User: Fold this.
Amino acid sequence: MAHYRAVGEVPSKRHTQHRDPDGHLYREELMGEEGFSSDSSLLYHRGVPSAIVASEVWELPDQTRTPNHPLKPRHLKLHDLATDKDAVTGRRLVLGNNDVRIGYVVTGVDPSPYYRNAIGDECVYVEAGSGTVETVLGVLSYRTGDYVVIPRATTHRWVPSEPSQLYAIEANSHIAPPKRYLSRFGQFLEHAPYCERDLHGPTETFVRDGEDVEVLVKHRTSAGIVGTRMTYATHPFDVVGWDGCLYPYTFNIDDYMPITGKVHQPPPVHQVFEGHNFVVCNFLPRKVDYHELAIPVPYYHSNVDSDEVMFYVGGDYEARKGSGIGLGSISLHPGGYAHGPQPSAIEASLGVDYFEESAVMVDTFAPLDLGEGGLAVEDPAYAWTWAGRGPDAGGDAAVFSNS
Ligand SMILES: [Fe+2]
Assistant:
């Protein structure tokens, strides 16, 4: 993210001697993306950021993925998953492919272990709850409706001040605002639905003392995604100053200014972020289409190149009325299959001028498999709700707007 920030003490020239009051040198670390060819920050540590005294296997939560075969739309009821887990090790894999994984966890109030994701950036949507995320670069406060964006390899831990419902989008790449929102130098343009003022990064350093501190590292090998528990000789939160354009930040969904039109606007106007082979959009309370004959809910659509995941987080989603989908639900509408509103939702939307609905959407360009957490809370009747009947003849027809 090309917005420069400086926190704490940094020397006037990079790569020069920077000493504490007793004359000891701070250790400079460059944390940079794409080798040395993209955004980076320079961190000044009291200790040695490479000093580990142990490295052991960390057994990850179940990462099993089951293909969506035979192909059908899915409804997953995330609120049926267990509660009182920690924000890192308690994540249940709901959906995933080789580009992105979606996990869900409901925390208690205990802090998570120290953790970093060495595979890609994380964008964690806070469905509900509040607390802080302590990071090597400083502390972020989080609250309901925040996206918490944590760059790859940023050591951090979650410290909930109340139980928190977290929807974790873990990329195998970086996650950033869409390029079309930005000038060629990276400033948000006038047509973007949010801007720099809405992004909240650390404002102070966060230095802690300690020895033999464990950090869980999620990373990749040729055998797939694995975990390692590294023990650091001194506390990894020992940065007295940093500057640069690479840092964690939050963005609240209420600061997104929806774009609306005379007739139905397609999902790209609702985009928030992009990663490699996927996008994140949000559908928020808004005035809707004002043509006198407009149909406010979407037309049926076949996203021939993508799978579409909607997470229903607020209000009453107009296009899914009659589907059984409610708050905390996920719908997966896969590529190769046309989807749209349940028929009764179209009639019900005519003449409506405001949608009181909130949903977070992830569209992927590669098919999504089902994780064990997703399969555990599936509503098997959903696929038949447009027809009103399915192979079980008489199963409950369930019915939600934009996607
Ligand atoms: Fe859709």
In short: Residues 301, 308, 333, 339, 403 surround fe (ii) ion (CB under 6 Å). The longest helix spans residues 343-349.
